[in-house]
Amino acid sequence: MKFARLGPAGQEVPVVVGEDGVRSLAGLTEDIDAHFWESDGPALVAAALAAGELPLVADAADLRIGAPISRPGAIVCIGMNYAAHAAESGAEPPTSPVIFFKAPNTLAGPNDAVTIPRGSTKTDWEVELGVVIGKRASYLDSPADSLDHVAGFVVANDLSEREFQLEISGGQWSKGKIAAGFSPVGPWLVTPDEVEHQKLGLRSFVNGEPRQDSNTADLIFDVAHVIHHLSQYMVLDPGDLIMTGTPEGVALSGRFPYLRPGDVVEVEIDGLGRQRQEYVAFGAGR
Fold first, then answer.
1. How many CB atoms lie within 10 A of CB 62?
2. What is the pLDDT of residue 85?
3. pTM value?
């Protein structure tokens, strides 16, 4: 199944996207949130679909697409998880997952405009496979247990301001990761039964020109390893989002210019959809 959230920011309505159209989940759940996963929401949706109980959203095509999950408790990111990206960053591939966090209020819809932070000259794009947790994970016994805790997969853009991240960071990456709107996610969350997550093509484009082109088969630490590893250090709760890392082809490489107002970034992952964001100057329109 494909789950999404449609409507103005802060007023999104949960829906399920099918071949016969977009159907409202308003009668089943208030949102795509922790309670939805804890109450076995997908099974309830499947039963309601089979019974013909979910109404079509007639104007779905005219509505803004929000992030397919509501405000997560945590956004956990894996750094340098593709060897070629580590190399273009001037680093050796890590021997253990590199972890950093993004603030939940960085979450944005897949096609929302992104404001370049005040004073930024090095805003960068990063297409990533996102993993949404569906069941609490703590001290898992092995990576083989990990996928039982996955609610679904999403397209994510782990936006970064490289000067803030690397030059005035104080040793941590967070300053370059936590600007408002720096985590566009969606358009859908796709459940694991419909995704071969270990071999998904992922790509990015800036102003229509190709930038990144890779495959999740090239991850250094795969999804199962990442979830198991994280569970040894933190509790992953339903609704939490993990961004699994980006491949080579970002501006940090020195091969491409950083983003400027008016630029358009598109990112896509096979079977998970495509995003499009226009980048605007801080203070524009205010």
1. 8
2. 81
3. 0.96
CA 181 to CA 73: how far, in whole Å? Answer: 16
| pLDDT of amino acid 286 | 52
The DSSP line for 215-251 is EGGGBSS-HHHHHHHHHTTSPBPTT-EEE----S-SG
Mean of all residue pLDDT scores within the chain = 95
Q: Are strands 273-280 and 114-115 parallel, antiparallel or unpaired?
A: parallel
* Distances from the Cα of 85 to the Cα of 126, 189, 222, angstroms: 10, 26, 15
d(CA 247, CA 141): 29
Taking alpha carbons only, the member of 159, 173, 65, 68 closest to residue 115 is: 159
pLDDT the model gives residue 63: 98
Q: Where are the beta strands (DSSP E) in the chain?
A: 2-6, 13-18, 21-24, 65-66, 75-79, 98-102, 107-108, 114-115, 123-124, 127-133, 150-157, 160-161, 183-184, 189-190, 201-206, 209-215, 241-243, 264-269, 273-280
What is the tens place of the pLDDT at every residue in 144-197? Answer: 999 999 999 999 999 999 999 999 988 889 999 999 999 999 999 999 999 999
Integer Cα distance of 270 and 102 in angstroms: 25
CA 249 centroid distance within chain = 18
Distance of alpha carbon 90 from its chain centroid, rounded? 25
pLDDT at position 172: 85
CA distances from residue 199 to 36, 155, 165 in whole angstroms, order as listed: 28, 14, 30
> Mean pLDDT, to the nearest integer, of 65-93?
90
User: Is the predicted pLDDT of residue 88 greater than 60, yes or no?
Assistant: yes
Q: State the pLDDT at residue 25.
A: 97
